[in-house]
Design a protein that fits this description.
CATH architecture of the largest domain: 3-Layer(aba) Sandwich
Domain N-sulphoglucosamine sulphohydrolase C-terminal: 360-513
InterPro entries: Alkaline_phosphatase_core_sf, SGSH_C, Sulfatase_CS
Keywords: Hydrolase
CATH topology of the largest domain: Alkaline Phosphatase, subunit A
Structural class: alpha/beta
Helix content: 25-40%
Radius of gyration: 24 Å
GO molecular function, one term: arylsulfatase activity
Strand content: 15-25%
CATH superfamily of the largest domain: Alkaline Phosphatase, subunit A
CATH class of the largest domain: Alpha Beta
Distance between the termini: 74 Å
Family: Belongs to the sulfatase family.
Number of domains: 3
Strand order of the largest sheet: 9-8-7-6-10-3-11-12-4-13
Shape: globular
Number of strands: 18
Length: 522
């Protein structure tokens, strides 16, 4: 019982320190819950905790909150920068050639194999996945699943369950948040720990913001990357790509551009059924009205090629960051839910994305390349009592490490055939063990495919990166210390012979370690 004194002070009941310590120890000993929140195509540049100029203009306070209360991963990467293969690597702890899902348009993920949710389920965890799945086959290893149909739609999306496929009215990020909270409220056995994969469609192409965010960044000018008008000198594969904002983006579908003044007819849109076609008539009218003044302003005068290219960049970023805003709100809602229900004390919360993304660097959108913007995966993690606030994880980590790390954190033995390794020690101490890895292996397979990015593999070390576009036998070498934006290919340059030989040897070592078939490297 508290009593108020005339001075306005509150006298709190005495709690022996031994009880407090005992409560903390109980939290530390109890098996943790895990909420794994993953968005789609969320660039590191668009998370303000990383300090990029874009994030400073359009902050993400709720995502940042996880990092401030826990850890920020500074060197986290994917093993294959495209949606489905990255998700398969996370589920299995294995590279694409081992888990069998190497391309987005593969035959479907082999759900009969060993996966993280299956192992957790067998060890007493209740498991669920809600949102984007994008692995073609039905989920396995989950007590509950409710997934989007393929890429999903932003407005009034279809959700698939074991029993049916149903259209749900609303904005996709809000619906995923709602159904996540409903599952948490209705868990069958609340004495069981749980593992929940909350997977957003956002921030995937074509970047349709929630209606409340249509005008959020309408008057914001985003900083243009210094290499926006890159000419790709000395980089063959970069010259051959089809992912340029000002040349390759679909002006109707992606940029919401119309045919003329006061027009309601979009320019090129190859997937109308997945865009305006998903909206109710009144929703479609409000959407078109929201863009009308901006589209009219564009058509009000003639513009040079450079002006149009920069205008398209601003439209892209305004929409992209508008979609990010809904994800950040969702994260805040989940964090508040956990606190409100007391689940925050023993729940690991992770926020990441399936891979990085280009926000105008090299003039691009999309991903696929081993260059830093798409190879890198931003990630923050919170675990009260285990991860200290403001921890910076600087060791090289990869998405194949997620499964072994979560198993380790849950006190479950990590299968020997998982290729990733637990980074629990890194995140709990903030320090790299002396024997921690010094390099990462990467392999992208999907060519021919969207955006014409050539198949390639490579090795990344702390300072240098070596890439091989093997069908054309083109090599690229970068010094990330002197050339962090990867503009100057040093392969074959005088003075780089020793570095090249060392990276070649390390690449061969990694391919042997991960048992990469040589027929996949030709």
């Amino acid at each position: 019982m508290t009593s108020k004194l005339s001075l306005g002070l509150v006298v709190l009941p005495f709690v022996p320190s031994s009880i407090v310590q005992g409560q903390e120890q109980e939290v530390r000993n109890e098996r943790p819950n895990i909420i794994f929140i993953m968005s789609d195509d969320h660039a590191r540049q668009a998370m303000s905790i990383y300090g990029h100029p874009i994030g400073k203009v359009a902050p993400t306070p709720n995502i940042d909150r996880i990092g401030h209360e826990g850890a920020v991963f500074q060197n986290n990467y994917c093993c294959n920068s495209i949606s489905g293969p990255s998700r398969a690597a996370i589920l299995t702890g294995k590279h694409s050639h081992k888990n069998g899902f190497m391309k987005n348009w593969a035959k479907g993920f082999d759900g009969t194999q060993q996966t993280l949710p299956k192992i957790l389920q067998a060890n007493g965890y209740e498991t669920a996945v809600i949102g984007k799945w994008h692995l073609i086959s039905k989920p396995t290893g989950f007590d509950h699943w409710m997934i989007l149909d393929d890429q999903g739609e932003y407005c009034n999306p279809h959700f698939i369950t074991e029993n049916d496929t149903t259209r749900h009215l609303g904005y996709v990020t809000d619906l995923i948040t709602k159904y996540t909270e409903e599952w948490l409220d209705g868990r069958k056995d609340k004495n069981k720990p749980f593992f929940l994969m909350m997977h957003h469609k956002a921030v995937h192409r074509n970047w349709v913001p929630a209606e409340r965010h249509y005008h959020l960044y309408e008057h914001t000018t985003f900083p243009l990357p210094d290499n926006y008008f890159d000419v790709y000198e000395g980089r063959y594969a970069a010259q051959m790509q089809k992912m340029n904002i000002y040349c390759d983006m679909y002006e109707g579908h992606d940029l919401k551009m119309v045919t003329g003044m006061d027009s309601d007819s979009l320019l090129f849109d190859p997937w109308p059924h997945a865009f305006l076609g998903t909206m109710e008539p009144d929703e479609r009218r409000r959407f078109l009205d929201a863009y009308r003044d901006r589209n009219n302003e564009f058509h009000s005068r003639k513009r040079s090629f450079k002006e149009i290219a920069e205008w398209k960049y601003q439209r892209y970023l305004q929409d992209y960051m508008g979609v990010v805003a809904s994800v950040d709100e969702s994260v805040g809602e989940i964090l508040d839910y956990l606190k409100r229900t007391g689940l925050d004390k023993n729940t690991i919360v992770v926020y990441t994305t399936d891979q990085g993304f280009y926000l105008g660097e090299h003039g691009w959108f999309d991903k696929r390349f081993m260059y830093e913007e798409s190879f890198g995966m931003p990630m923050v993690m919170r675990w009260p009592g285990h991860i200290k606030p403001e921890t910076q994880v600087t060791g090289l980590t990869q998405n194949i490490d997620f499964a072994p790390t979560f198993l380790d954190m849950c006190g479950i033995e990590v299968p020997r055939d998982m290729q990733g390794v637990s980074f629990r020690e890194l995140v709990e101490t903030g320090k790299k063990p002396r024997d921690w890895r010094k390099s990462l292996y990467y392999h992208y397979y999907e060519f021919p495919g969207f955006h014409s990015v050539r198949a390639h593999y490579g090795v990344k070390m702390e300072r240098y990166k070596l890439m091989h576009f093997y069908v054309e036998d083109k090599w690229e070498l970068y010094d990330l210390k002197t050339d962090p934006t990867e503009m100057h290919n040093l392969y074959g340059k005088q003075g780089m012979e020793k570095v090249t030989a060392e990276l070649m040897a390390e690449l061969a070592r990694l391919q042997k370690q991960y048992e990469v078939p040589q027929n996949l490297c030709k």
